[in-house]
Amino acid sequence: MLCRDMRVQPARRAQGEKPTEIRAPAISNFHGANNIEDPTNSAELSPAGLKAFKEELNIFKILFDQYKNDLRKYEKEQSDLQHISAFIQSTISTHLQSTCLIPQQTIREWLVNLRNTVGVDNDVEMTRARERYQAALRPMRSVAHWDTWLSKYDHAATQAEKYKVPELQRLSVVQDDFVKAVNKVEPMWATNFRGGGSRLPKTSRREMLKQFREHMILNHPTRDVKLHAALAAHEDIYDNALAGARPEGDLESRSKTDELSR
C-alpha cells in the first residue's frame, strides 16, 4: 500500500484510503446506577455498566493505536505521492504530460500510461542485457587492464542475471564461458580452475570471480594495487618513527653502528 523509497508499482492500482477515525465509547451509552438515565461520568454507571464501559475502553485504546499508526502511514504515502508527482511532471516533456498525466487519474495510472507510451518491455531489456553480456565475454587480450575488464564483465553478468538471460541460468555454462574468456592471458589459472576449483560446492559465479581476482592481484598487481601497497609501507614507517623506532635502512642509524663497531 505504501510508497517505499519513493517507488510506486504501476500494476497495483489500489491507493491507500484515509483510515476511519476511531471515537471513544460514550458513557451515556452504558447503564447508569440508581436509575440514572443519562450518565455523564463513570461514577454514575452501575457495576455492570462500568464493567462494560471499561471493556469497551480497552478495545478503543487498541483500535486507536492502530488508527494512529495507519494514519501516519497514510500521511507519509500522501507526502511521497506528492513528491513523485512533482518529480514526474518536472522530468517529462509537455507532450507526455498532456497525453499521459490525466488529472482525473492516479499516479499509478500515470505510470502505466507512461510505460505503455515510452516504456521498454522485459523482452527488450533481456535482449539488451544479453548483448552486453556477450560483448563483455570477448577474450581478455592482455593483463595490463585486467581489473577494468573484470569489472565490466561482472556488471554485465549481474544485469544478465537480473533479466534472466538464458546463458546465466546454468552455472556450468557461466564458468565455461568465463574460463574461455581468460584462458589466453591466464592459461594456468584456467587449467587449475577446470581441474578443481569449478567443482567446489560453493563455487558460484561470484566465488569464481573472487578466486580469479585474488590470483590476478597476486600475479599482476595493477597500479592501484601497487600504490595501495606503497602507501601501506609508508604508513608503517611513519608509525614506527612516531614510536621512536628507525627504519632498517636509516643512514644515520647505520653510521652510528659502524662507529661503535670500530
Secondary structure tally: strands: 0
Q: What sort of overall outline do the alpha carbons produce when their principal axes are compared?
A: elongated
Unreliably modeled segments: 1-7, 247-257
Helix-strand topology string: HHHHHHHHHH
User: Structural class of the helices, strands and pairings?
Assistant: mainly alpha
* Radius of gyration based on Cα positions: 35 Å
In whole angstroms, the N-to-C terminal distance is: 87 Å
- Strand share of the residues? under 5%
In DSSP terms, counting alpha (H) and pi (I) runs of 4 or more, how many helices? 10
How do you describe this structure in short?
The chain is mainly alpha-helical and 262 residues long. Helices cover 62% and strands 0% of the residues.
Can you walk through the features of this model?
This protein has 262 residues and is mainly α. Helices cover 62% and strands 0% of the residues. The protein has ten helices and no strands. The termini are far apart.
Topology:
Elements: H1 47-91, H2 94-100, H3 107-118, H4 122-136, H5 146-162, H6 171-182, H7 187-195, H8 205-219, H9 223-242, H10 251-261
Main traits of this protein?
mainly alpha, 262 residues, 0% strand
